[in-house]
Design a protein that fits this description.
Blueprint (H helix, E strand, L loop, with lengths): L7 E10 L11 E11 L4 E12 L16 H11 L5 H4 L5 H10 L6 H5 L3 E5 L1 H6 L10 E3 L6 E2 L10 E2 L12
Parallel strand pairs: 1-4
Antiparallel strand pairs: 1-2, 2-3, 4-5, 6-7
Length: 177
């Protein structure tokens, strides 16, 4: 039986601390971001992997305040800004939709920018980053939806796996699409 054409199930961004040699020149805390698409056949396609930012805010406690931590909302907010296209102010677009269409086409997936805009977009923080933020690990790569009003975590990759409701926090869903 032919399972039919492969479709994009969701889009997302994966974030971790940047420990590359290039990042060692930053003062503060550097982060790296990779945008991806999850496909109905279980594959993950990298859409962009050249994003990131650095902040002077300490990730963990300081000598003056050992309990001070960067907030999850701070990281998610900065990540949302880091994935914006360079011309976002002129176009109003939140992602490089045409580039995404081209990358997915290279992977054999036919899709339009409008179809991509309608998909869920999840933000994934590595377990290492979540730990440094003082956040619990969810035993995989949790995905925090970016659409306003949603608070679910996806802990698995795979076709149709969109997770179950999980702990919601004020910073879990920064801004709507």
């Amino acid at each position: 039986m032919n399972p039919g054409p492969v479709a994009v199930v969701s889009l997302g961004a994966w974030c971790d601390l940047d420990s590359s040699p290039a990042a060692s020149s930053f003062t503060g805390t550097p982060f790296r971001v990779r945008e991806f698409a999850l496909l109905s056949d279980g594959r993950e396609v990298t859409l962009l992997d050249d994003r990131g930012w650095a902040t002077s805010e300490p990730l963990g406690g300081t000598a003056d305040d050992p309990e001070a931590r960067m907030s999850l909302a701070h990281v998610v907010g900065n990540l949302s800004m880091a994935v914006l296209p360079d011309d976002a102010e002129q176009t109003g677009e939140e992602h490089e939709w045409q580039h995404f269409v081209e990358r997915l086409g290279d992977a054999g997936v036919a899709v339009t920018p409008d179809e991509l805009r309608a998909l869920p977009y999840h933000i994934t923080l590595s377990d290492r980053l979540r730990s440094r933020l003082g956040e619990p690990s969810y035993g995989g790569e949790p995905r925090l939806p970016r659409r306003a009003g949603q608070a679910e975590v996806v802990a698995q990759h795979g076709p149709g796996v969109l997770g179950a409701p999980a702990r919601a926090s004020a910073g879990s869903a920064p801004r709507g699409r």
